Amino acid sequence: MALEREQVSLRLYTAIATAYYWTYDDPAAATADQTLKRTALSRYVKLLFLVKKYARQNATIADIFAEYVAKQPEKVCFVFEGREWTFREVSDYSNRVANVFHTHGYKHGDVVGLVMENRPEFVGTWLGLSKLGVIIPLINHNLRKNALLHSITVAKCNALVYSEALCEAIGEITESLPSTMALYQFNDAIQQTVLANSKDLATLLQSASKELPTTNVKKASHHDQLLYIYTSGTTGLPKAAVITHSRYLFITAAIHIVAGFSPNDVFYTPLPLYHTAGGMMSIGQALIFGATVAIRKKFSASQYFTDCQKYNCTVGQYIGEMCRYILATPESGNDKDHKVRLIFGNGLRPQIWPQFVERFNIPRVAEFYGATEGNANIVNIDNTVGAIGFVSRIIPSVYPISIIRADPATGEPIRGKDGLCQLCQPNEPGVFIGKILPNNPSRAFLGYVDKGASEKKIVRDIFKKGDSGFLSGDLLVADERGNLYFKDRTGDTFRWKGENVSTSEVEAEVSNASGYRDTVVYGVEIPNLEGRAGMAAILDPEGQVDLVKLADTLKQSLPSYARPMFVRLLTKVDMTGTFKLKKLDLQKEGFDPNVIEDAVFYLSPKGAYERLTKEAYEQIKRGEIRF
């Protein structure tokens, strides 16, 4: 029925959109606009047909992958550090994983956490566990101590798989983990030393069967939970967002179809595989569509297009910060010596977009927008510079997403006299929402493992009493044609180095490291850099904060992207105002020593906090001191 409704909407939309054609003064503009609408709609309907097909089959991600293993067993599935993994090899590896954990008693509904750097075994491990119906939280391998411990325990893991490279990080929290939690250490070689109370997974895998276990195995279903992918919300530590098999399929298929990917493409991703972008949108191209994916362990600006050339990649993935780093590398005769026909990602700023595609000869950019846990996802399909997607202003019911008026500081919707939300006008910034339809995988909001956190992301009574939607927390703006542009984040979360940073988490760590002093953390803009750099203001009237200790402690307790780039030592706090207002005042002052009387320090490339002089401030503005 849902698909039939979409088809009716398509026919109705086409009729009205055709009439709308004649409202243009410029026939060429009208033709281009209608072509865009029809392309977007035809691809969306194609997506719905594919999703419906796999729903009828009750297919899991492993089921779909098995189809390609049978069709093309010797085709290259993954390329990593010079080694090619065929579809058969990935299947065999995942089956070995499934057999090891099956013999150890793991079953449908159990939770096994995975913390491992980028590598094919990362995918093979969660894919194998999913064949048992096990749920796999994909944990950020950059996290340490409290944040890492929280990510493991909040998911209620029965076991944890970690790689040899993460031994030190796991060792730091072992005593705090539940005594019932089993530990599996994956080493690069067999018969190697493992942490106390850990099992040697590499050795266990060597003797395991490569056939799919079927005895006493309860198969997962299409709508069962598959993964937990962590995301930083507006407050607190990382939240575990629920990803079902159907959700994984929809996200992967949506970017594939709407952006115009092909199974013959070779994808390149240096993004972390524990996030949606790398772990679903790129890896899913192999699992769901039989394409080849080249994986890099860690992003390198100088090697990005060298790798693309080396592996004959046709599609490259990015986040905006990466594009700036790549553009900053010295020009080379090899800049255009590649086969990349399209790049896709989020955060490519319009200020560098034209220069990037010109220098590296990129025919198409598929900029997208979406949240891991959300249901409001869009893609730029027509190369409009700076746009993150398109939505019709004629019949929004075809794809029910909206921009509503909201307080930019809090993200709270601004309601009318009738108590309902108000739509923004063209070029008016507002909060982006997606209508929730529980029985439609493209419109459902699965939320977080923490149900209380899920409820905070839902806005109710939007355009009529009783309806609901996912509240993104992002400020967007739409032009007259329906092209959407990202403006900023609302509330207490800011974005830096491609990651969402929760101020409350950083405030707690900075306060602890500075002797439990009053601390406020916020994001500040640095000229020509994407996102906002973290800045911590610490109440220190006696000048007793040890900046050396602060830097060393934060290096241990926070991932690099969450560490404050600037520290301001406050001599006094205006106690007459609210904390929120003071925070906004501090943010407005930024890190300019010309207007700030307090001592300000910046995190130098040496990893120490150094005094921010007026000269250093100008060097930062010119990009001579880099972050």
From TrEMBL:
<keyword id="KW-0813">Transport</keyword>
<feature type="domain" description="AMP-binding enzyme C-terminal">
    <location>
        <begin position="505"/>
        <end position="580"/>
    </location>
</feature>
<keyword id="KW-0436">Ligase</keyword>
<dbReference type="GO" id="GO:0000166">
    <property type="term" value="F:nucleotide binding"/>
</dbReference>
<protein>
    <recommendedName>
        <fullName>long-chain-fatty-acid--CoA ligase</fullName>
        <ecNumber>6.2.1.3</ecNumber>
    </recommendedName>
</protein>
<keyword id="KW-0443">Lipid metabolism</keyword>
<dbReference type="InterPro" id="IPR045851">
    <property type="entry name" value="AMP-bd_C_sf"/>
</dbReference>
<comment type="similarity">
    <text>Belongs to the ATP-dependent AMP-binding enzyme family.</text>
</comment>
<dbReference type="Pfam" id="PF00501">
    <property type="entry name" value="AMP-binding"/>
</dbReference>
<dbReference type="InterPro" id="IPR025110">
    <property type="entry name" value="AMP-bd_C"/>
</dbReference>
<keyword id="KW-1133">Transmembrane helix</keyword>
<dbReference type="GO" id="GO:0005324">
    <property type="term" value="F:long-chain fatty acid transmembrane transporter activity"/>
</dbReference>
<keyword id="KW-0812">Transmembrane</keyword>
<keyword id="KW-0276">Fatty acid metabolism</keyword>
<keyword id="KW-0472">Membrane</keyword>
<keyword id="KW-0547">Nucleotide-binding</keyword>
<dbReference type="GO" id="GO:0005886">
    <property type="term" value="C:plasma membrane"/>
</dbReference>
<keyword id="KW-1003">Cell membrane</keyword>
<feature type="domain" description="AMP-dependent synthetase/ligase">
    <location>
        <begin position="65"/>
        <end position="414"/>
    </location>
</feature>
<dbReference type="GO" id="GO:0044539">
    <property type="term" value="P:long-chain fatty acid import into cell"/>
</dbReference>
<dbReference type="Pfam" id="PF13193">
    <property type="entry name" value="AMP-binding_C"/>
</dbReference>
<dbReference type="GO" id="GO:0005789">
    <property type="term" value="C:endoplasmic reticulum membrane"/>
</dbReference>
<dbReference type="InterPro" id="IPR020845">
    <property type="entry name" value="AMP-binding_CS"/>
</dbReference>
<dbReference type="InterPro" id="IPR000873">
    <property type="entry name" value="AMP-dep_synth/lig_dom"/>
</dbReference>
<dbReference type="GO" id="GO:0004467">
    <property type="term" value="F:long-chain fatty acid-CoA ligase activity"/>
</dbReference>
<dbReference type="InterPro" id="IPR042099">
    <property type="entry name" value="ANL_N_sf"/>
</dbReference>
